[in-house]
Amino acid sequence: MTTETEQPLTIDELAARAGVTVRTVRFYGTRGLLPPPAIGPRRVGHYGREHLARLELIEELQQQGMTLAAIERYLDRLPPDLDAHDLAVHRAVVASWAPESTATVSRAELDRRAGRALTDGDVERLVAMGVIEAGDGGYRADLGLLRLGVGLLDVPLSQEAILAARNVLIEHSRAAAHELSRLFHDEVSERAAQDVRSLSASMQPVIVQALLTTFQRSLREELREWLGGVPRER
Fold first, then answer.
1. pLDDT tens-digit profile of 143-198?
2. Does 146 share its domain with 167?
3. Do 123 and 65 fall into the same domain?
4. Domain boundary, last residue among 155, 183, 198
5. Residue 90 covered by a domain
6. DSSP, residue by residue, the chain
7. Are residue 10 and residue 50 in the same domain, yes or no?
8. Range of 123's domain?
9. What predicted TM-score, i.e. pTM, was given to this entire model?
10. pLDDT at 22
């Protein structure tokens, strides 16, 4: 079944969905931050889910304090074939850069931030995934992971499989972080503490993007080999 977000959007609908102005959408288009729309009847531009996801990623990068030039460099480093889901993953990672990305929200606010009405079963699964935590005053939500967790609700996997995958990712990401920290330790050992903090803040987006992009490519190769029997690229 086609959902609302799969229907072609006009520029006005795209701007309203993303919470920006039409002028902003056009500006991003002229800068090459958004791909051009498909031209439909009467030469009306039609936008899709990828446009919306990319626009939301741009807005998230701006909220993290990145300049337009830095955003352009960030987007230029992304693989050109990312779909809406891939871009949503990048946005979730970007949101996690914030020093404090958790907040206590009501059930209604939880639905709003999730972008859809959540059932009781959805909420239970999000709690099990560690994305939200139920409390007397509402739900303590990791806002950087909420959209990603909501996306997992539609994945046709059991709760046990999702939690097992989460544990695998945590284990290997911690190992990667440890090795990277050890690698950079010698490079910064002679610097002042302030310089080290500055270096860490500037490198974090680059490292996270590199890890995410590398993982996405590796996962696609694994899935391609598993589903299609295509030999893995060397």
1. 767 877 887 787 777 777 777 876 777 777 778 777 777 766 666 555 554 555 55
2. no
3. no
4. 155
5. no
6. ---GGGS-B-HHHHHHHHTS-HHHHHHHHHTTSSPPPEE-GGG-EEB-HHHHHHHHHHHHHHHTT--HHHHHHHHHTS-TT--HHHHHHHHHHHHTTSS--EEEE-HHHHHHHHTSPPPHHHHHHHHHTTSEEEETTEEEEEHHHHHHHHHHTTSSS-HHHHHHHHHHHHHHHHHHHHHHHHHHHHHHTTS-HHHHHHHHHHHHHHHHHHHHHHHHHHHHHHHHHHHH-PPPP-
7. yes
8. 99-155
9. 0.51
10. 93
